[in-house]
Amino acid sequence: MPKRFVVVASRFSDLPRFPAGVELAEALTAAARQLHDTSSPDSTLDTAVRLAVDLVPGADHAGISVIERNNRRRTLAWTDEVVRSAEDGHPAPERRPYWHRLWTAPVAGVEDSEGDEGEDVLSERGLRSVLSLRLRADRRRLTVLTTYSRKPRAFDETSLRIGRLFTAHVGMALDSATVREQLTEAMRTRDLIGQATGILMERLDIDAAGAFDSLVRASQRENVKLRDLARRIVDAHNTP
Known about the structure:
single chain
């Protein structure tokens, strides 16, 4: 299960709230730089929800969540506990929540949760309006960035335009961080398997090819990933 974050937007004050005399292009450039400076997909999500509150006009809170085809929703990052509570809340069974529309459209929103739209999960938590945008989509799940306001009709065309530009930057930064993490893990796995192979060469008095084959056969026999088996061998070797 992906790691969850609780972050406080007020701690993120180095980027002025737009608009406040800062050109949009400059604000997005600063945001993109901070997103790409993150060290992992987890920290990219952490940074993105903080930035969303600063960048999107009208936003008081923000969250990033995954929506499954069965309409289950799991929050990955949020600025305030009220966001996690709202996103993990269960809508009335006879109603489709606003975010169901994201399966067929890149944007979904709520103008007033206490109005005709009747989003009780939101209104009960004082969240009056919502702007939700897709970050990633496939046939099985969606990843979405959602901003919330305690005021009705807080998000206008400017909010939508900035939100869509911002999510494009978030998506690129998230892809980049994912690739970096995968490459780092691949390097770690290679080094780990190399250590385990060396240990088997010494213990069994065999060459590198024989040691690697032995490791692969043991992995298949025990139905254990090669990486995990290699780690067990290295840990056992390093334990007095």
